[in-house]
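explain this.
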Amino acid sequence: MRFWKLATAAIVATLLVGCGPPQVDQSNSGADSRTGTLRVWLFDEANRDPKEKVVNAAVEEFEKNHRDVTVEVRYIAVDTRSERFTGAFNDPSSAPDVAEFGNTDLASYVTAGGMSDLTGMIEDWPAATDLSDSVLDTAKVDDKVYGVPWFTGVRALYYRTDVFDELGLEPPRSLGELVETARRIRSERPDMYGIAAGGKYTYAMMPFIWAAGGELAERGNGSWRSAIDGEASRRGVRTYTSLLDPAICPPDQCAQLTGTESVQAFAGGKAAMTIGGDFNRTAVNEGAAGDKYDVVPLPGQRTGSIAPAFAGGNLLGVLRSSDHSTLAQEFIKVLAGKKYQRRMYEAMSYLPTFEDVQDKVAADDPAIEPFIDTLQAGTRFVPSTPAWSEIDAQEILPTMAQRIATGEEVRPATQRAAERMNSAFGDR
Protein backbone atom coordinates (compact mmCIF):
# COMPACT_ATOMS: atom_id res chain seq x y z
CA MET A 1 0.00 0.00 0.00
CA ARG A 2 1.29 3.45 -0.81
CA PHE A 3 2.70 5.46 2.06
CA TRP A 4 0.53 8.07 3.75
CA LYS A 5 1.67 10.63 6.26
CA LEU A 6 0.10 11.32 9.63
CA ALA A 7 -3.27 13.08 9.76
CA THR A 8 -4.24 14.22 13.22
CA ALA A 9 -7.52 13.76 15.02
CA ALA A 10 -7.76 17.51 15.32
CA ILE A 11 -8.17 17.78 11.54
CA VAL A 12 -11.23 15.57 11.66
CA ALA A 13 -12.77 17.56 14.49
CA THR A 14 -12.11 20.84 12.77
CA LEU A 15 -13.46 19.72 9.40
CA LEU A 16 -16.69 18.32 10.74
CA VAL A 17 -17.72 20.42 13.69
CA GLY A 18 -19.45 23.81 13.63
CA CYS A 19 -20.58 25.94 16.53
CA GLY A 20 -23.36 28.39 17.28
CA PRO A 21 -22.92 32.12 16.75
CA PRO A 22 -21.59 34.19 19.63
CA GLN A 23 -24.30 36.83 20.06
CA VAL A 24 -22.06 39.83 20.51
CA ASP A 25 -20.92 42.88 18.62
CA GLN A 26 -17.53 44.39 18.15
CA SER A 27 -16.23 47.68 16.81
CA ASN A 28 -13.08 48.34 14.85
CA SER A 29 -10.56 50.25 16.95
CA GLY A 30 -9.52 52.40 13.99
CA ALA A 31 -5.84 52.05 14.90
CA ASP A 32 -3.36 50.30 12.59
CA SER A 33 0.03 50.11 14.29
CA ARG A 34 2.99 48.72 12.34
CA THR A 35 5.04 47.89 15.45
CA GLY A 36 4.62 46.04 18.72
CA THR A 37 3.14 42.62 19.48
CA LEU A 38 1.06 40.74 16.93
CA ARG A 39 -1.16 38.25 18.76
CA VAL A 40 -2.04 35.01 16.98
CA TRP A 41 -4.42 32.19 17.97
CA LEU A 42 -3.99 28.80 16.35
CA PHE A 43 -5.71 25.51 17.13
CA ASP A 44 -3.83 23.04 19.28
CA GLU A 45 -3.13 19.51 18.05
CA ALA A 46 -2.85 16.11 19.69
CA ASN A 47 0.77 16.26 18.56
CA ARG A 48 1.61 19.94 18.25
CA ASP A 49 5.33 19.64 17.48
CA PRO A 50 5.19 19.29 13.66
CA LYS A 51 2.74 22.19 13.31
CA GLU A 52 4.63 24.33 15.79
CA LYS A 53 7.92 23.89 13.94
CA VAL A 54 6.38 25.17 10.71
CA VAL A 55 4.65 28.05 12.48
CA ASN A 56 7.86 28.99 14.30
CA ALA A 57 9.74 29.12 11.00
CA ALA A 58 7.09 31.42 9.53
CA VAL A 59 7.22 33.63 12.64
CA GLU A 60 11.03 33.82 12.45
CA GLU A 61 10.86 34.86 8.79
CA PHE A 62 8.17 37.46 9.49
CA GLU A 63 10.01 38.97 12.48
CA LYS A 64 13.22 39.11 10.45
CA ASN A 65 11.43 41.30 7.91
CA HIS A 66 9.58 43.33 10.56
CA ARG A 67 12.28 44.29 13.08
CA ASP A 68 9.93 46.18 15.41
CA VAL A 69 7.34 43.40 15.61
CA THR A 70 7.07 40.43 17.96
CA VAL A 71 4.66 37.64 17.02
CA GLU A 72 3.03 35.99 20.03
CA VAL A 73 1.41 32.64 19.15
CA ARG A 74 -1.06 31.00 21.50
CA TYR A 75 -2.52 27.53 20.87
CA ILE A 76 -6.16 27.07 21.88
CA ALA A 77 -8.24 23.90 22.19
CA VAL A 78 -10.66 23.21 19.35
CA ASP A 79 -13.36 22.08 21.78
CA THR A 80 -13.40 25.42 23.64
CA ARG A 81 -13.14 27.69 20.60
CA SER A 82 -16.73 28.98 20.84
CA GLU A 83 -16.17 30.29 24.36
CA ARG A 84 -12.76 31.71 23.47
CA PHE A 85 -14.02 33.59 20.42
CA THR A 86 -17.09 34.86 22.25
CA GLY A 87 -14.81 36.22 24.97
CA ALA A 88 -12.55 37.82 22.38
CA PHE A 89 -15.48 39.47 20.60
CA ASN A 90 -16.77 40.82 23.91
CA ASP A 91 -13.39 41.99 25.17
CA PRO A 92 -11.13 43.30 22.37
CA SER A 93 -8.28 43.77 24.85
CA SER A 94 -8.05 39.98 25.15
CA ALA A 95 -8.55 39.31 21.43
CA PRO A 96 -5.89 38.15 18.99
CA ASP A 97 -5.06 40.02 15.80
CA VAL A 98 -4.94 36.82 13.71
CA ALA A 99 -6.92 33.66 14.36
CA GLU A 100 -7.36 30.20 12.89
CA PHE A 101 -10.96 28.99 12.71
CA GLY A 102 -13.05 26.37 10.95
CA ASN A 103 -14.82 27.40 7.76
CA THR A 104 -18.15 26.12 9.12
CA ASP A 105 -17.80 28.64 11.97
CA LEU A 106 -17.26 31.62 9.67
CA ALA A 107 -20.89 32.70 9.19
CA SER A 108 -21.43 32.79 12.95
CA TYR A 109 -18.36 34.91 13.55
CA VAL A 110 -19.24 37.34 10.76
CA THR A 111 -22.79 37.66 12.08
CA ALA A 112 -21.32 38.46 15.49
CA GLY A 113 -19.38 41.31 13.87
CA GLY A 114 -16.05 39.81 14.87
CA MET A 115 -14.13 39.38 11.61
CA SER A 116 -12.52 41.85 9.20
CA ASP A 117 -13.43 41.95 5.53
CA LEU A 118 -10.35 40.72 3.62
CA THR A 119 -11.79 41.06 0.11
CA GLY A 120 -9.40 43.86 -0.78
CA MET A 121 -6.42 41.91 0.50
CA ILE A 122 -7.32 38.91 -1.65
CA GLU A 123 -7.84 41.10 -4.72
CA ASP A 124 -4.43 42.74 -4.26
CA TRP A 125 -2.46 39.58 -3.41
CA PRO A 126 -0.94 38.06 -6.61
CA ALA A 127 -0.66 34.58 -5.07
CA ALA A 128 -4.42 34.51 -4.44
CA THR A 129 -5.07 33.98 -8.15
CA ASP A 130 -3.91 30.39 -7.61
CA LEU A 131 -6.32 29.71 -4.73
CA SER A 132 -8.93 27.11 -5.62
CA ASP A 133 -12.08 29.06 -6.43
CA SER A 134 -14.41 26.59 -4.74
CA VAL A 135 -12.27 26.49 -1.59
CA LEU A 136 -12.11 30.29 -1.52
CA ASP A 137 -15.91 30.26 -1.57
CA THR A 138 -15.82 28.67 1.89
CA ALA A 139 -14.22 31.89 3.16
CA LYS A 140 -17.07 34.09 1.90
CA VAL A 141 -20.25 35.46 3.41
CA ASP A 142 -22.46 37.56 1.12
CA ASP A 143 -19.67 37.51 -1.50
CA LYS A 144 -17.17 39.13 0.87
CA VAL A 145 -14.00 37.28 1.91
CA TYR A 146 -13.33 37.00 5.64
CA GLY A 147 -10.45 34.54 5.74
CA VAL A 148 -7.64 32.94 3.77
CA PRO A 149 -8.06 29.17 3.30
CA TRP A 150 -5.10 27.66 5.14
CA PHE A 151 -5.86 24.02 4.41
CA THR A 152 -8.76 21.97 3.15
CA GLY A 153 -10.04 18.40 3.22
CA VAL A 154 -12.30 16.36 0.96
CA ARG A 155 -13.64 12.82 0.76
CA ALA A 156 -13.23 10.19 -1.93
CA LEU A 157 -14.12 6.52 -2.49
CA TYR A 158 -12.07 3.90 -0.65
CA TYR A 159 -12.32 0.33 -1.97
CA ARG A 160 -10.81 -3.06 -1.18
CA THR A 161 -8.52 -4.04 -4.03
CA ASP A 162 -8.44 -7.72 -3.01
CA VAL A 163 -12.24 -8.01 -3.01
CA PHE A 164 -12.53 -6.22 -6.35
CA ASP A 165 -9.85 -8.49 -7.86
CA GLU A 166 -11.52 -11.60 -6.47
CA LEU A 167 -14.89 -10.65 -7.98
CA GLY A 168 -13.49 -9.22 -11.21
CA LEU A 169 -14.78 -5.72 -10.48
CA GLU A 170 -13.55 -2.29 -11.55
CA PRO A 171 -13.93 0.87 -9.47
CA PRO A 172 -17.36 2.37 -10.24
CA ARG A 173 -17.40 5.27 -12.71
CA SER A 174 -20.85 6.62 -11.86
CA LEU A 175 -23.12 6.64 -8.83
CA GLY A 176 -25.39 4.15 -10.56
CA GLU A 177 -22.45 1.79 -10.99
CA LEU A 178 -21.55 2.38 -7.34
CA VAL A 179 -24.95 1.13 -6.19
CA GLU A 180 -24.80 -1.94 -8.45
CA THR A 181 -21.21 -2.72 -7.48
CA ALA A 182 -22.09 -2.53 -3.78
CA ARG A 183 -25.08 -4.81 -4.36
CA ARG A 184 -22.94 -7.35 -6.26
CA ILE A 185 -20.33 -7.43 -3.49
CA ARG A 186 -22.91 -7.98 -0.75
CA SER A 187 -24.48 -10.79 -2.79
CA GLU A 188 -21.19 -12.62 -3.30
CA ARG A 189 -19.58 -11.67 0.02
CA PRO A 190 -22.46 -11.60 2.54
CA ASP A 191 -19.93 -11.28 5.35
CA MET A 192 -19.23 -7.69 4.20
CA TYR A 193 -21.19 -4.52 3.57
CA GLY A 194 -21.09 -3.63 -0.10
CA ILE A 195 -20.32 -0.12 1.13
CA ALA A 196 -20.31 1.35 4.63
CA ALA A 197 -22.66 4.32 4.19
CA GLY A 198 -24.10 5.60 7.44
CA GLY A 199 -27.48 7.18 7.97
CA LYS A 200 -25.72 9.79 10.13
CA TYR A 201 -22.98 10.41 7.57
CA THR A 202 -24.21 13.73 6.18
CA TYR A 203 -20.92 14.60 4.48
CA ALA A 204 -21.15 11.39 2.45
CA MET A 205 -24.76 12.12 1.43
CA MET A 206 -24.12 15.70 0.29
CA PRO A 207 -22.13 14.75 -2.86
CA PHE A 208 -25.02 12.54 -4.01
CA ILE A 209 -27.39 15.52 -3.74
CA TRP A 210 -25.04 17.90 -5.55
CA ALA A 211 -24.16 15.33 -8.24
CA ALA A 212 -27.88 14.97 -9.01
CA GLY A 213 -28.11 18.73 -9.56
CA GLY A 214 -29.73 19.38 -6.20
CA GLU A 215 -29.00 21.87 -3.44
CA LEU A 216 -29.20 21.86 0.33
CA ALA A 217 -30.68 25.35 0.34
CA GLU A 218 -31.01 28.39 -1.87
CA ARG A 219 -30.93 32.09 -1.07
CA GLY A 220 -33.45 34.56 -2.41
CA ASN A 221 -34.78 37.92 -1.28
CA GLY A 222 -32.13 38.04 1.43
CA SER A 223 -33.00 34.80 3.22
CA TRP A 224 -32.26 31.10 2.93
CA ARG A 225 -34.85 28.45 2.07
CA SER A 226 -34.40 24.70 2.03
CA ALA A 227 -34.05 23.00 -1.35
CA ILE A 228 -33.77 19.47 0.00
CA ASP A 229 -37.32 18.70 -1.18
CA GLY A 230 -36.62 19.76 -4.78
CA GLU A 231 -36.81 17.03 -7.41
CA ALA A 232 -33.07 17.00 -8.12
CA SER A 233 -32.22 16.89 -4.43
CA ARG A 234 -34.67 14.04 -3.92
CA ARG A 235 -32.94 12.05 -6.66
CA GLY A 236 -29.65 12.41 -4.83
CA VAL A 237 -31.20 11.51 -1.47
CA ARG A 238 -32.91 8.50 -3.05
CA THR A 239 -29.62 7.23 -4.52
CA TYR A 240 -27.74 7.65 -1.26
CA THR A 241 -30.40 6.04 0.91
CA SER A 242 -30.67 3.14 -1.54
CA LEU A 243 -27.30 2.10 -0.10
CA LEU A 244 -28.99 1.62 3.29
CA ASP A 245 -30.56 -1.61 2.18
CA PRO A 246 -30.29 -5.23 3.36
CA ALA A 247 -28.73 -6.06 -0.01
CA ILE A 248 -25.93 -3.50 0.52
CA CYS A 249 -25.66 -2.09 4.06
CA PRO A 250 -28.53 -3.34 6.29
CA PRO A 251 -30.48 -0.47 7.90
CA ASP A 252 -30.56 -2.16 11.30
CA GLN A 253 -26.75 -1.98 11.29
CA CYS A 254 -26.03 1.05 9.09
CA ALA A 255 -28.78 3.60 9.70
CA GLN A 256 -27.05 4.74 12.90
CA LEU A 257 -23.51 4.83 11.49
CA THR A 258 -21.69 8.16 11.61
CA GLY A 259 -18.88 9.10 9.27
CA THR A 260 -16.22 7.94 11.70
CA GLU A 261 -18.03 4.63 12.22
CA SER A 262 -18.44 4.13 8.47
CA VAL A 263 -14.70 4.55 7.94
CA GLN A 264 -14.00 2.28 10.92
CA ALA A 265 -16.17 -0.44 9.37
CA PHE A 266 -14.05 -0.28 6.22
CA ALA A 267 -10.75 -0.09 8.10
CA GLY A 268 -11.78 -3.09 10.21
CA GLY A 269 -12.57 -5.27 7.20
CA LYS A 270 -16.38 -5.18 7.48
CA ALA A 271 -16.98 -3.24 4.25
CA ALA A 272 -15.69 -3.38 0.68
CA MET A 273 -16.09 0.37 0.13
CA THR A 274 -16.61 3.58 2.05
CA ILE A 275 -16.45 7.33 1.54
CA GLY A 276 -13.56 8.76 3.51
CA GLY A 277 -11.35 11.80 3.72
CA ASP A 278 -7.69 12.35 3.06
CA PHE A 279 -7.51 12.70 6.86
CA ASN A 280 -8.75 9.10 7.33
CA ARG A 281 -5.82 7.33 5.69
CA THR A 282 -3.86 6.77 8.86
CA ALA A 283 -6.81 4.99 10.49
CA VAL A 284 -7.32 2.82 7.41
CA ASN A 285 -3.62 2.01 7.12
CA GLU A 286 -3.62 0.76 10.70
CA GLY A 287 -6.67 -1.48 10.21
CA ALA A 288 -7.39 -4.82 8.55
CA ALA A 289 -7.72 -3.11 5.15
CA GLY A 290 -4.28 -1.53 5.56
CA ASP A 291 -2.40 -2.90 2.56
CA LYS A 292 -5.41 -4.01 0.52
CA TYR A 293 -7.14 -0.82 -0.56
CA ASP A 294 -6.98 2.05 -2.97
CA VAL A 295 -8.82 5.35 -3.42
CA VAL A 296 -10.52 6.97 -6.40
CA PRO A 297 -12.64 10.13 -6.61
CA LEU A 298 -16.28 9.51 -5.74
CA PRO A 299 -17.97 9.30 -9.16
CA GLY A 300 -20.78 11.60 -10.18
CA GLN A 301 -24.05 11.05 -11.97
CA ARG A 302 -22.49 10.83 -15.41
CA THR A 303 -19.97 8.10 -16.24
CA GLY A 304 -16.46 9.41 -15.73
CA SER A 305 -17.52 12.49 -13.76
CA ILE A 306 -16.55 13.36 -10.19
CA ALA A 307 -19.20 14.13 -7.57
CA PRO A 308 -18.78 17.53 -5.90
CA ALA A 309 -17.33 17.00 -2.41
CA PHE A 310 -17.89 19.02 0.73
CA ALA A 311 -14.86 21.25 1.28
CA GLY A 312 -13.93 21.25 4.93
CA GLY A 313 -10.95 23.09 6.28
CA ASN A 314 -9.60 26.00 8.29
CA LEU A 315 -9.12 29.69 7.59
CA LEU A 316 -6.83 32.40 8.90
CA GLY A 317 -8.60 35.70 9.52
CA VAL A 318 -8.16 39.10 11.15
CA LEU A 319 -10.37 40.19 14.03
CA ARG A 320 -12.14 43.52 13.59
CA SER A 321 -10.81 44.73 16.92
CA SER A 322 -7.20 44.37 15.79
CA ASP A 323 -5.08 47.51 16.01
CA HIS A 324 -2.46 45.79 13.81
CA SER A 325 -4.67 45.12 10.80
CA THR A 326 -2.05 45.62 8.08
CA LEU A 327 0.56 43.57 9.96
CA ALA A 328 -2.05 40.86 10.56
CA GLN A 329 -2.78 40.62 6.85
CA GLU A 330 0.92 40.54 6.01
CA PHE A 331 1.49 37.74 8.51
CA ILE A 332 -1.37 35.71 7.01
CA LYS A 333 0.21 36.08 3.58
CA VAL A 334 3.33 34.43 5.01
CA LEU A 335 1.80 31.66 7.14
CA ALA A 336 -1.00 30.83 4.66
CA GLY A 337 1.19 31.47 1.62
CA LYS A 338 2.47 28.84 -0.78
CA LYS A 339 5.81 28.20 0.94
CA TYR A 340 4.33 27.39 4.32
CA GLN A 341 1.26 25.60 2.97
CA ARG A 342 3.69 23.18 1.35
CA ARG A 343 5.56 22.80 4.64
CA MET A 344 2.30 22.28 6.55
CA TYR A 345 1.39 19.51 4.13
CA GLU A 346 4.75 17.84 4.69
CA ALA A 347 4.39 18.19 8.47
CA MET A 348 0.68 17.56 9.01
CA SER A 349 -0.78 16.23 5.71
CA TYR A 350 -2.98 19.34 5.46
CA LEU A 351 -4.16 19.61 1.85
CA PRO A 352 -2.99 22.91 0.30
CA THR A 353 -5.52 25.40 -1.04
CA PHE A 354 -3.34 26.75 -3.88
CA GLU A 355 -3.85 24.69 -7.03
CA ASP A 356 -0.21 24.94 -8.16
CA VAL A 357 0.93 23.68 -4.74
CA GLN A 358 -1.65 20.88 -4.96
CA ASP A 359 -0.14 19.81 -8.28
CA LYS A 360 3.35 19.74 -6.78
CA VAL A 361 2.41 17.63 -3.75
CA ALA A 362 0.44 15.21 -5.96
CA ALA A 363 3.49 14.77 -8.18
CA ASP A 364 5.59 13.92 -5.12
CA ASP A 365 2.95 11.77 -3.38
CA PRO A 366 0.67 9.81 -5.78
CA ALA A 367 -1.53 8.70 -2.87
CA ILE A 368 -2.92 12.22 -2.67
CA GLU A 369 -4.01 12.34 -6.33
CA PRO A 370 -7.64 11.18 -5.86
CA PHE A 371 -8.21 13.93 -3.32
CA ILE A 372 -6.47 16.59 -5.42
CA ASP A 373 -8.51 15.49 -8.45
CA THR A 374 -11.65 15.82 -6.33
CA LEU A 375 -10.66 19.29 -5.17
CA GLN A 376 -9.88 20.49 -8.66
CA ALA A 377 -13.10 19.09 -10.07
CA GLY A 378 -14.93 21.60 -7.87
CA THR A 379 -16.15 21.35 -4.30
CA ARG A 380 -19.26 22.65 -2.55
CA PHE A 381 -20.10 24.04 0.86
CA VAL A 382 -22.97 24.34 3.32
CA PRO A 383 -25.12 27.52 3.37
CA SER A 384 -23.14 30.45 4.78
CA THR A 385 -25.50 31.27 7.63
CA PRO A 386 -25.39 30.76 11.40
CA ALA A 387 -28.62 28.78 11.02
CA TRP A 388 -26.61 25.90 9.59
CA SER A 389 -25.13 25.22 13.03
CA GLU A 390 -28.68 24.78 14.35
CA ILE A 391 -29.66 22.53 11.44
CA ASP A 392 -26.54 20.44 12.01
CA ALA A 393 -27.07 20.23 15.78
CA GLN A 394 -30.68 19.10 15.30
CA GLU A 395 -29.49 16.32 12.95
CA ILE A 396 -32.22 17.21 10.46
CA LEU A 397 -30.57 15.57 7.45
CA PRO A 398 -29.46 12.40 9.32
CA THR A 399 -32.99 12.01 10.71
CA MET A 400 -34.35 12.31 7.17
CA ALA A 401 -31.96 9.63 5.89
CA GLN A 402 -32.77 7.30 8.77
CA ARG A 403 -36.52 7.66 8.23
CA ILE A 404 -36.12 6.71 4.58
CA ALA A 405 -33.82 3.82 5.43
CA THR A 406 -36.41 2.41 7.81
CA GLY A 407 -39.33 2.60 5.40
CA GLU A 408 -40.61 6.17 4.97
CA GLU A 409 -41.06 7.39 1.38
CA VAL A 410 -38.53 9.89 0.09
CA ARG A 411 -41.01 12.67 -0.69
CA PRO A 412 -42.61 13.06 2.77
CA ALA A 413 -39.23 12.60 4.46
CA THR A 414 -37.63 15.39 2.43
CA GLN A 415 -40.68 17.62 2.91
CA ARG A 416 -40.48 17.15 6.67
CA ALA A 417 -36.74 17.94 6.60
CA ALA A 418 -37.34 21.05 4.50
CA GLU A 419 -39.93 22.34 6.97
CA ARG A 420 -37.52 21.91 9.86
CA MET A 421 -34.69 23.57 7.95
CA ASN A 422 -36.89 26.54 7.05
CA SER A 423 -37.86 26.91 10.69
CA ALA A 424 -34.15 27.19 11.54
CA PHE A 425 -33.46 29.58 8.68
CA GLY A 426 -36.26 31.93 9.66
CA ASP A 427 -35.50 35.23 7.95
CA ARG A 428 -31.74 34.64 7.86
